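Continuing the series of single-chain predictions for the mutant panel. This is the parent chain; the variants come on the following pages.
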Amino acid sequence: MESDERVKAQLMNALDLGRTLDRMARQIAEPIDSDVDASRSFALIGMQTRGVYLARRLQRRIQEVEQIDIPVGTLDVTMYRDDVRLRASPPAVQETNIPFDVTGRRLVLIDDVLFTGRTGRAALDALMDRGRPDSIRFLVIVDRRHRELPIAADIVGRTVPTLPDERVHVSLEEVDDRDGVWLIGNGE
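Parent structure:
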C-alpha cells in the first residue's frame, strides 16, 4: 500500500484469508468427479498479479485435502482491456503461461477483487482466444459490487459494499510481505 493512501478498515487478517482460501478450495473441489482425471478436465487460471498467487495457494490446498493435482496457468489481460488505448503510457504486460489446452476443460478463473467487471470480461476474451472451455467459474476474494458489465463471481470470499472512490487492497505474502485485506480511502 502506498503511503498517501488511508486505511479505513482491515477487512481480513492473515488467519481470515487462510480460512477463506480453505473454504474456497473445498468449493472448487466439490464438483470434481473422482472417476475423472482431474488433471485433464479441470484447471485453475490465476490472473496477474495476485490471482496467480491465490491460484497456487488454492492448488496446494486442494492437493493436500483432496489428493487431486490440478494444473495452474497464469493470465495477463492487459491487452484485452477496453481501456488499453486510453492510457497515456503503454501498459506493463506480464506473463501469460497456460501450459495446457483450455478446450474441453472446466476452468476456475481467479482474481483478488471484482469491481466493475471489466477485468473479468477481458479475461473471458483472453481465454476464448485460446480455445473453448467446457465451463469457466469465477473466484474472487472480495466482491466490491459497482458493476458496469454483467459479470458475477461464482465463488466469493467476502462481499464488501464500497464507495466508488475507495479501493480494496488484497496483500499477499508473496508480493507484499504480509497477508490481509484492507479497505483504502481516497487519501483525503
